[in-house]
Amino acid sequence: xxxxxxxxxxxxxxxxxxxxxxxxxxxxxxxxxxxxxxxxxxxxxxxxxxxxxxxxxxxxxxxxxxxxxxxxxxxxxxxxxxxxxxxxxxxxxxxxxxxxxxxxxxxxxxxxxxxxxxxxxxxxxxxxxxxxxxxxxxxxxxxxxxxxxxxxxxxxxxxxxxxxxxxxxxxxxxxxxxxxxxxxxxxxxxxxxxxx
Length: 196
Description:
The chain is of the alpha/beta class. It contains nine helices and seven strands; from the N terminus they run E-H-E-H-E-H-E-H-E-H-E-H-H-E-H-H. It has one domain: 3-Layer(aba) Sandwich (Rossmann fold).
């Protein structure tokens, strides 16, 4: 079992069209607090980011936000969090979040959310990150994305072992259980040689 003290959640700076997205952001926030897990997130106070952070705060949990200076002005950084880390770039934001988190969850979101989860999976594939990565597949939001992973395997662009790096579930509690049970995939030998 993994020790998950801090989970990074990637999600939209919009609420989306369906109320279930907000409901599941709140449910995930409540589950984090219930388990005593700290939230690490992008630092904004809008969209699903704001919903999950404010839910965790209202229930007495701990929240760390990481936001670039330029987005702090646009997205209105959440000044209520216990720790708001201001950085100079998106690259620095992602690096800092990856350092702070023990695992990563992507909720519904847009291009930024996809880019963040894809980068963590790429780092796992390269052996740079051994932390679990999960999708909270709210109302089938990520069904087509998961099908595309299968297509990448079918076409020879992804190895089956690397497909196992991504876990998914529509239920926050069940997803966290999968992250706790996650076993990192073996690092390919050609990468092991480079890291000695």
